Amino acid sequence: MKFVVVGGGSAGWMSAATLVSQISGAEITVIEPSNSPTIGVGESTINDFVDWLNLLKISPEGIMKDTDAIFKLAIHFKNFYSENDEGLFYPFGGWGKTMNDLPNFELAALWNKRRIFHNESCRNWADSFYANMALIRNKTFTSRTELFDGKHFALHFDAIKFANCLKTNYCLPRGVKVVEGEVAYVNTNSEGVSSVILKDGVEVRGDFFLDCTGFKSILLGGAMGEPFVPYEGLPNNKAWATQIPYVSKETELEPFTDCTALGNGWVWNIPLWSRIGTGYVFSDEFVTEDEALAEFKEYLGRKGRDPEQFQYKLIKFRTGIHKRTWVKNVVGIGLAAGFIEPLESSGLWTIHTNLIELSRILTRGSWNAWDISNFNWNIEKLFIQFAQFVHIHYTLSTRRDTAYWRKVASQEEPVMEELRMARLNTVKWNYTTGINCILNGMKYWLFDDVRMRSHIPYYCNIKEEAFSILDENWKVWDEASRRAPPLLEILRSIHDPYVHQVVEI
Fold it and tell me: pTM to 2 decimals?
């Protein structure tokens, strides 16, 4: 079978890498525009990204030097709950190894009783339950899983370097072909797309096409005419992006993505090994491009930078998804399929999620209408759930200081099915999921005094001595993280192994 990947970048080369690794004997051609601009902000991944790397048998550490990467352990949100809040962390991974056998519900109930009746001695949710917070606090790192589960980290990397790394080191050595050029015309028939004609007249035929053309969606949205369905709850549609150098890597390089809310949106801060990627996401419904840039520059100035020395790139986007992402013999991947504003690092997530779902079908060797329908249903469901998760960051806010926040914080809360069930049955709620970090950080308690007293009487009898369980867990994680190598030492050994001794992680 001939697969044609239309478009390069992260989406195109992740698609080619997935196909060549999963489908034996496949003929794969990537049509890569020679001078096509890239979005260039997809530098932050979530821990599911490691699943995709594992699928391709790629070591995360093995690509870090070529991609300017560092480890990512969490996402930090500041000023979302209130204008000057203390911030909250959403760490990756599970709760780590504990010193007891209590299920997560009982540990959560224990923590909530401590919060309700002994708040002065209660650590925040993330510090209490996520071993990763000890690594962040002590600026150390380990990939071992004795205390930290196997999905406790992701990566920050240069998206352009990452795409080139996949192309050069993975795809080309495995026989993937490259044709440089831009699509001028798409030929279609009853089966979907039959071929694409490039501007230089070259025709590329194929049996199956992956649309990786970004927001243009040349095949899925263009040739196939699949309608785009916006997600109305997230009004942000533009971003100013730039790159800034380190002043002090020792203090500024942190293993997490930092998101800071401003008056009309929020700023991301993504440290890489050699630089920091940053940008301001906003909605032009409330502020002009020039006003947003001025607000962004003011923020950088407060951080001790000279904002006039940087170059700024304006990025326009829309949040939503095409009604179907697989139509006949065309599948949209990444931005060509849909996009969720990048508050929870969803750009690359939409790529590898679609590819993993697609590979499950393609590896069977054949597919039918049910496979296509099921794929579209799964992708739409995952997209909506993730969009609702992002939406909750706004709807649970107490900010009302600008017109922007008065609107985004007053919209009806999109209730995910899992959250709806948690309200009905607290006992069956999975307290190790990331949404609990957001809910508890926003002071939206699933457990409260009334509920514990009326519905969960057993846990109201928890003795104060039991609080030592939480303290002991925290102590175990803290001690383990202190024994781990320093984060900067590990990264230096990866990026400059000829100068720095390789550190076991």
Answer: 0.93
